[in-house]
Specification:
- By secondary structure, the protein is α+β, with helices and mostly antiparallel strands.
- The chain has helices at 4-19, 23-28, 54-65, 67-77, 85-91, 103-114, 158-179, 181-186, 188-202, 205-218, 253-258, 263-281, 318-332, 336-346, 355-366, 379-393, 402-418, 424-440, 442-459, 463-475, 480-518, 533-551, and strands at 122-125, 131-132, 136-143, 148-154, 225-226, 239-243, 248-249, 284-285, 293-296, 304-307, 313-314, 527-528, 531-532.
- The chain folds into four domains: 4-93, no CATH class; 159-199; 248-440, no CATH class; 443-551.
């Protein structure tokens, strides 16, 4: 049920759009389309008047409507293939040029959070903000020890505004699902639930600081990405103090080109960083618009990214990781049958879907994009055609992947701006092949052995006691049939685990014998292909028994 305050908010949204001369957006909505003639009856349309450019009017309307609408504009700003150039350029100002709130008020918020005067912790604090975004703004400062830092401060009273608009989005999503088959397939309400969790997490700066620390550990000593240090002593739920970084804004493309920055290398780094975060670390920065990315160009031929703003991060389950990697590789190999089968196996399309028909549809969408540079590929058109294919086969959107999809859009937008000739497929394919080999190869086998052996050894002493308890319960007449099954199951489990442990120990012993033999003086060996024969045999038997132990 729509509450009166939400009705007022809807009316306010329409009022703001109309006041900024965006009447056509209101009357483009299906509900209001029959009343489109009212545009000509509105008093402000009776006379010719000077209006700001359309892009500026859209940006100003989004700024006035608040954080959720600003973030929507931020996402659109990276999609210059979908929007006219002048609108995309105007919306890019939403990334770090949102109107700030009063700096004196920010200082009071900091003092309340820290419980002391700002002079107790800082030798210098700039009241004028360095940058201002949708939910917070940033001030430059210097600590007592001389370190340069930035202080991020949440906008005052931001939580009620966010909750109000989230509630409105829920109403719109539920109505859409009630009256639209497409909205039900897209699982609009679940997507809003994911977005709500994400944006509420973004309002907790302690969580953001923890995200930054994790990313910093993940990329420690990396020559690809630098993450600033967090100063935990001065960080609170609504205040974050972080090392100040110096680099070129990601939006300064022409300036970087003029200074001889290797733009091809920079674009490839972006792809490598994305896939490293998603598949190696399983922890990715999910708000990578140009306002949050800087570039260290101290060495122009080997540029390095610097990231800020860690309020939104994403993770994937191992199943989602594997599914995505297999899909990407199948796409790269143009194995559309495999792509179709993966969709069916994962349950993303109904079980009865004809794989051959789905394969043909995917081929018609994807085949035109291969072996072409990024500048010739419109991912906007690709997504549109995939949407049409999805609707035909009733494919459901997976809400847990919304953040990943958003990040992919940001990465592509950045890549298009940096180096339009980037071969996205050539850059990503080797990385994914390496990751898949690690998941199914010998390294994965050894990793499984390492992870499971302590569990097997730990549980072995408990098996006799578990069997005794089962026998005791069976003797007391508690569901004899079920207990008998349990006893047999436990017995089989114990025997299997004993065999697994024996095979594993024999396998490890084989490798140890091989290592000992290899360490003996060469004149004591009978050589076979430049290796001691006994070492070959020991290694082979060790590998065989280790494989048996992990397989069982």
């Amino acid at each position: 049920m729509i509450k009166p305050l939400q009705i007022l908010r809807l009316l306010h949204i329409n009022y703001v759009l109309a006041r900024h001369g965006l009447d056509e957006i209101i009357f483009a909505v299906h509900l209001f389309r029959p009343f489109r003639f009212l545009i000509f009856l509105l008093p402000w349309n009776w006379f010719i008047r000077m209006r700001a450019p359309r892009g500026q009017r859209i940006r100003e309307a989004l700024e006035e409507l608040g954080p959720i609408f600003i973030k929507f504009g931020q996402m659109l700003s990276t999609r210059k293939d979908l929007l006219p150039e002048e609108i995309a350029e105007e919306l890019s100002m939403l990334q770090d040029k949102v109107p700030p709130f009063d700096g004196e008020k920010a200082q009071k918020i900091i003092e309340q959070a820290l419980g002391v005067s700002i002079k107790e912790y800082f030798d210098d604090f700039e009241v004028t903000p360095l940058a201002s975004a949708s939910v917070a703004q940033v001030h430059a400062a210097r600590l007592k020890n001389g370190n340069e830092v930035v202080v991020k401060v949440l906008r005052p009273n931001i939580m009620p505004v966010i909750k109000r608009d989230i509630g409105l989005l829920y109403i719109i999503a539920r109505l859409a699902e009630r009256y639209s088959k497409d909205a039900r397939r897209l699982r609009a309400v679940e997507i809003i639930e994911e977005y709500e969790k994400t944006i509420l997490d973004e309002l907790d700066l302690m969580r953001e600081a923890a995200n930054a620390s994790q990313l910093r550990r993940n990329f420690e000593n990396s020559d690809k990405l630098y993450i600033p240090e967090i100063y935990w002593d001065y960080t609170r739920r609504n205040v974050l103090v972080m090392e100040r970084i110096h680099g070129e804004p990601m939006s300064a493309i022409e300036q970087m080109k003029a200074r001889g920055v290797n733009m091809k290398r920079l674009s490839e780094l972006g792809v490598e960083i994305f896939f490293t975060q998603v598949f190696t670390h399983n922890f990715f920065h999910a708000d990578m618009h140009p306002g949050n990315i800087f570039v260290d160009i101290e060495n122009p031929d080997q540029p390095k990214y610097i990231a800020v703003d860690f309020g939104i991060v994403g993770t994937l389950s191992p199943r989602d990781q594997r599914y995505l990697a297999e899909n990407f590789l199948a796409f790269f190999k143009r194995d559309y049958n495999r792509v179709a089968q993966l969709h069916v196996d994962s349950g993303w399309v109904p079980e009865g879907t004809r794989v051959d028909e789905f394969e043909s549809a995917i081929r018609s969408v994807c085949e035109p994009i291969f072996e072409r540079p990024l500048k010739e590929i419109s991912f906007g058109n690709l997504l549109l055609r995939l949407f049409q294919t999805a609707r035909r086969f009733n494919m459901e959107v997976q809400p847990q992947l919304v953040l990943l999809q958003k990040t992919l859009l940001n990465i592509e937008g950045l890549g298009r701006q940096i180096y339009p000739d980037l071969d996205l497929w050539k850059t990503a394919k080797p990385f994914l092949e390496k990751w898949m080999n690690e998941q199914v190869g010998m390294r994965s086998l050894l990793k499984g052995f390492k992870n499971n052996l302590p569990f097997i050894v730990e549980k072995m002493p408990d098996m006799p006691e578990l069997i005794f308890e089962a026998i005791k319960k069976a003797a007391e007449g508690e569901d004899n049939h079920q207990q008998t099954l349990a006893i047999n199951s436990l017995k089989e489990k114990m025997e299997s685990d004993q065999q697994k442990l024996i095979f594993t120990i024999v396998g490890v012993a084989g490798f140890i014998v091989s290592a000992i033999v290899m360490g003996q003086p060469m004149e004591n060996h009978t050589l076979f292909l430049e290796m001691p024969l006994i070492s070959w045999v020991s290694s082979g038997l060790g590998a065989f028994f280790l494989w048996l132990g992990l397989k069982k």
